Amino acid sequence: MNFVDRIEETKRVKQVLNAEKSTFTVLYGRRRLGKSTLITRVLNQNDVYYLADQTDAVLQREVLAKMIAVIIPGFDKVIYPNWSVFFDTLNDRTTLRFTLCIDEFPYLVGSSPDLPSILQNKLDSKKLKFNLVICGSSQQLMYGLVLDASSPLYGRADAILKITPIKVHYIQEALGVSATDAVEEYAVWGGVPRYWELREGYTNLREAVENNMLSVNGTLYEEPLKLFKDDIKDIVKTATIMSYVGGGAHRLSEIAGRSGEIATNLSRPLAKLILLGYLTKEIPFGENEKNSKKSLYKISDPFMNFYFKFIIHNRSFIEIGRIAPILSNLDNHFSDYVADYWENLCRETVSGNEIDGITFGIARRWWGNVSRNERIEIDVVAESLDKKYLLVGECKWTIKENSNRLLAELINKAGKLPFAQNHIIIPKLFLKNRPLRTMENVLLPDDIMKWCKS
User: Of 42, 46, 90, 332, which residue is 20 to 30 A from 375 by alpha carbon distance?
Assistant: First the structure.
C-alpha cells in the first residue's frame, strides 16, 4: 500500500531535523498508526534507527553500539558500563551531525529508569552534536516521560508530535474504492494504516473481516487487548467496560449496573479511555459537558467499535470455528452499524466547515423532549459562527429513501427546537444514495469526501 497522508507531520519532522542546531524530537501515539514508517521515511542514509525491546540495558547498549558502528567505525568495540558513558562517547566521536532515533523508548526506560535524567543532563548541556528522536506506542508512558511537569525531559523537546488516526478520505485513495465504499471500510478499520494494509490483501471487506477477526489465527483477533496492554493495568475491567458500551450501554448508570460497580468507581477508567481516544462522551447540542445530565458514552474509534459490537461477544463461536452465526448477524446489522459512523462523519465534516457560504461551529446531535408528549432527535445540529444560522441534518445509510418526506419531517422537527428561535434554519439531508429527484439540500458521500480534503 502506498504511503498516504502524514504530510504535515513529515514536514514538521524534516523542519526540526534540518535546523541549524541539534534538536530533540518526540513522537507518540497508539500502535499501528505508522510512527516508525513516518520516521524511517524522513531519516537519511547516515542516520540511525533503533527499535528498543524489553531486554536488559547491557544487551541494548551492545545492539545499539553495533548499529552506530555502521557510521562510526569501531564504536561497538568498547563495553559501555552505563548510558551516560555511552552518550558521552557517542558525542565525542561524532564528527558530522546525524539523527539517532530510539523507537519504543519506554522499553529502554523500563530497564534503565535513570535514562531520562541522563538525557536531561546531555540536552541541558547544549553540547549534543546529533539530533535525538524518541518514539513510543504507550501513550501514558510517553506522556509521563515527556509531557508531565515532573519528568526530567519536560520542556526539553524542540517538537512533540502526537500521531493520530488518518482521516477517512485517505482510505479511498489507499484502497482505490468509491466514496460510499470508503465510508463502510473506514467504519470497520478506522484510520489505522496497518489495518488498511491487511484489508488490501483481500478481494472484499467481508473476506478481510473473516480472515483477520473471525479466526483464532486472525492478525486482529486479539488486537484491542494488545493495545490495552500498552497503557492500562486492569485490562479485564477495561475490556468489560468497552464490551458493555459496544453492546448498547451508553449511560453511566447502565454501564455501572451491568458491571456491578458503583458509578463513581467508573469515573477514572472512563476518563482514561476517553484520554486514550477509545471512548467519547456525547452530550446534546447546546449543553455544557460539565453540567449535562444527558451524557452518553460511545466508542469513538471505528475499529474498536466494530470489534466490541460484533467480535467480543462471539469469541466462543470463533474459538470452535463456527462463524456462520456471526456472519449472519453482520449481514443483518452492518448497514445500521455503518449508519452510526455515517452520522459521526457528517457531524465531523460540518464542524468548522463552510457550507453554502456559511461557516459553522462544532456540530453535535440533539435529543430531548419538546413537549410533555413529544421527544425528538436530530442527527446534526450546528450554529454558524455569526450566530445567525442553524444547520440541521438528517443522516441515512439506506437506499430508496423518500427525500421529500425526510426533508419535510426535518424542517418540522427543527422548528420545535428550544434554541431555534432567531435563527435561519439550513436543512440538509446526508444520504447514502442520490435521490430520484435532484435536490439542493442533499449531501452524498462524494460531497463529504471533498469537504474532508479541504
Answer: 332
